[in-house]
Amino acid sequence: MALRTGLRCTAVWGTAVVMTLGACSGSGDNARTAPVEASGDGTLRIGLILDNTGPQAFLNAAQLAAAKLAVQEINAAGGHKGRPVELLPESTGADTAAQARELADAKADVVIGPTDSSHAPAAIDVLSKARITLISPANTAAELSSYKSGGYYFRTAAADIAQAPVLVKLARDAGVKSLAVLYEDGNYGQDVSAAVSAAAKAGGLDPVTVSGFKAGEAQKSAGGVRDAAPDAVVVIARDGAQGAIAELTNAGVPGNKLILADGAFRQYGSALGSRSLEGTRALVPGVFPSAHFQAELVAIDAKLKDTTFAAETYDAVNLAALAAAVAEDDAGASIAGTLSAVSGGTAGSRASASRSGQPAVCSTYKDCLAAIRDGKAIDYDGESGPVRFDANGDVTVAKYMVFTYGADNKAKLTGSEAAGRSAG
């Protein structure tokens, strides 16, 4: 979820079928290659920051179920060095710094969370000072790539701007020659619109018309988009998405010309005029959970209704445990120094670099642990797909689900796409 601050980081993403380009270089503050002396106490402790309240509170359940499932499987495979991995008691609240301090006092070695990108700095500041690794399954703000964490911050969710080349690919696949970008003012809209515009021009879509609007005030911008007569319109918005779509409909722009960025996706139904979105395509980050994974989550929490961020949480816990296994140490500093390597990234520690041959690709803690015990390097590709952390703790492979809307303004899953960049 997005952060609303003024920080900036530039990263270039290319679609998996189009190009793979260089990434945002890691600063010294985010390097994760320095070896450290073992300092753990032999018990790997994992904490959770559950920061969703109000209408977003439902997001806590999926993350908690996924973390419990991962720890259960890790312990069934022998735990960490023969001792059970502990999942610390969780609490929920918007005071992220307070939660982080509680987890540090409870001797957490790694913490999973928070969900909201705007809460990440508070958690990073507390936990990095305590030498505790933080892995968010949901932070997407591009500017967090350059936030100084001392090498302790990672995320298994891709940055918002990673979707830009995929949005452009959807347009190109439909034979589009010219594009308009309608974005909501704010960091999310500005960052993603700039990335879409650049990707579109690089892909030969010209002209590209870019127009911004404030939530609830999209009429003028929608009229300008109509007058530009583009072949397609990418809508990049969150709070103002429904209003912007309604204004585009009022301006005569048909649904089959629209492509929605992830923030604008929802099941609109009767909230919009009849057939407003018929033929519209939209992106949603991640992969659709397998039936097996869903069944395992429901076995943990029979009341679970939503699996958002479950795969990313599950993978974060497994990656942390595997990093501890490779480092042969449960301390946060050792985990941070080894996470990139076990994810298949290039910024690995000396401990992992000493392992032989091509990394063994594995998708469960049990299988990865067997490879580690055989002296092999590993590349964990879990429920959310390949991760491959770079030196900023960012994923270098981003996967998306493609949804298409029907006449009832409701979307159905119709495909998948991926974007990648080199780990640097």
The pLDDT mean sits at 90
**What is the ordering of alpha helices and beta strands?**
EEHEHEHEEHEHEHEHEEHHHHEHEEE
Q: Uncertain spans, ≥5 residues at pLDDT below 50?
A: 3-10, 15-28, 349-353
Outline: elongated
Helix content class: 25-40%
Amino-to-carboxy terminus distance: 23 Å
Strand neighbour order, sheet with most strands: 1-15-14-11-10-9-7-8
Count the beta strands. Answer: 15
What Rg do the Cα atoms give? 21 Å
User: Approximately what portion of the residues adopt beta-strand conformation?
Assistant: 15-25%
Helix count, DSSP H or I runs of 4 or more residues: 12
Biggest pleated-sheet summary: 8 strands, mixed
Structural class estimated from helices and strands: alpha/beta
